Each structure stands twice: as structure tokens, then as C-alpha cells.
Amino acid sequence: MSPDGDNEDGQLIAAAKAGDRGAFDKLVANHLPRLLGVALRILGEKSDAEDAVQNALASAWLALYRFDLDKPAGPWLATITINKCRDAMRRRRFSRLLRLDMEDGVDSIAHPEPDQEHQLAIRQELEILQQEIARLPLKLKEPFILAVFDGRSQDEVAQILGISRKAVETRIYRARNVLREKI
Predict the structure, then answer these.
(1) Cβ distance 73 to 80 under 8 Å?
(2) With 162 labelled, which of 72, 86, 145, 178 sits at a CA distance of 20 to 30 A?
(3) What percent of the chain has pLDDT over 70?
(4) Which domains does the chain have, with CATH numbers?
(5) What mean pLDDT value characterizes the chain?
């Protein structure tokens, strides 16, 4: 985000801290597509991603008083969103442990007509890629998604995840190697 965008975010947060709900709504509107994209790639299901982002934004609203206006809002909101995604994944794992059937949730693909064979092959390759990304260990998946799909710099990813830039670089490199081996 540009410095002007950071300045606008700071102004919106200052107004929201003063009780202006409309300012918070505008801040959310500015960041919502990126937050949903990150959550969707981490969780893999749209409804889970939407729930995680909604929970993250509710937490952000409640934590506004702690926000440092000298820092950019995007990484702060992304950090909260990732934490909510982690919570959702923990709940999902716990729920699976309680169920005996251990459903995988794999969707079936309808049989294509002959003229759609190429499209089906592309969809299958993308599905395999998504499955392999979902199988990455969390410490590799999060920096990979933030850098590759969300377009964040390695410095931003390091700030969001609370790790060093070198750790981000290493984890992205390892994630790419694991995906290269699998696909």
C-alpha cells in the first residue's frame, strides 16, 4: 500500500477510535478483498474464510484502542485474520477428531463433454495445486500464501507473522520446493 493509503488508514482508524463506525466500515472496505483472499487460501473453503475474516474484523474493532497510528493497518488486519484462520483450523481438526467418519470433504467433478477436456485438465491441475498447498505445513503455507497470492513483500510477511525476513525467504523457498516435488 502506498504511504498515502497508510495515511488514509491512519485517519480512518483515528476516526473509528473516536466512535465513527462509518470510518471503520471504509477501512474494512479498503482491505476486505485481500483479507478474504488470504483466508480463503489458508482455509480452502469460502464460508470458513468469510467467517474467519468476520471474526478478525470484529476483533479488530474491539482492539482499535491498542492500534498504533504510526504503523500501517494492512499488516495489522492481516495478522488478526491469520490468527483467526489458525483458530478455525484448530476447531476443524478438533471437530474431525470427534467424528468417526473423518470425511475429507473432496468435491466430485462432473464429467465433461468432449469439447471441455482441456478446461477439465486445467481445473484438475489447479485442484491438485490447491490440495498440495493445503497440505503444506502451516509454517510454510502462511508465508507462501501471503507472498505469492496476496502479493506482499517479504518484509511485510515477516512483520505479519512475527518472524525474520530470512525465515520468510527460507520458508517460501521450501514451500516452492515441496510443491515442485508433488506436482
Answers:
(1) no
(2) 178
(3) 84
(4) 1-101 (1.10.1740.10), 115-183 (1.10.10.10)
(5) 83
